[in-house]
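Friendly challenge for the regulars: who can give me the structure tokens for this chain first? No prize, just bragging rights.
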Amino acid sequence: MATKNLIVDNKNFDISYEIVNPTCTKDIIFLHGWGSNKDIMKNVFAPYLKDFRHIYIDLPGFGKTANKYELTTNDYVKITDEFLKLLNSSKDVIAGHSYGGKVATLLNPRNLVLLSSAGILEEKPFDVKLKIALSKFFNKLGLNKITKSFRSKDVNTMSENMYATFKNVVNEDFSSHFSNFSNNALIFWGKEDTATSLESGKKISTLIKKSTFISYDADHYFFVKNVKDISERIENGIH
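First reply, four minutes later:
Bragging rights claimed.
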């Protein structure tokens, strides 16, 4: 593990990262999902794709990269782009899981690999809609302590700046960004995914013109059990 310091828009970050196959000339960059970290991606993909230099990154606020700011998805894109410049990365392939898929798309790589990407707005269950409505109501009354009681356990463990960041990014509609992506894309999905539905994956595949869509009998972390097939498809499907 290593770190690189960079300053983006007067914000200071020490980005934690790891490189596998450092002498290879083609890059594949792995971006994890919300609440995850680079180790999950590295533990799965490091034994494969041996002709690539693997770059695994902890995005700010996750893993071993600290964050003390309120950020947006565009901030994550700028930070990642500046970091990749420090590594002289060619951005041949960028693979993004869940939230990382949104960042990967905006980085505009030569080859985009989406692993159950976020970015398509889905209908929320009634109980979630009710919590949101009640939270907004109590916020207007200035009763923030009551509002906090409606947060999920995962959200309650976030710092205030990461919770603000979460609110900035959670309901973004990336349909136009997917439509505007004109390079090659490989889209992989889990058929039993409840975090980002299979229908979302199919929609993304219709929005990105030069895309191939493959699904597996598995959940949101489908790539863990299907890494060999996914890696082979990446090797054979990139431009």
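Confidence is low (pLDDT under 50) at residues 125-135. The beta strands are 2-8, 11-20, 26-31, 52-57, 93-97, 111-115, 184-190, 211-216. Your move, everyone else.
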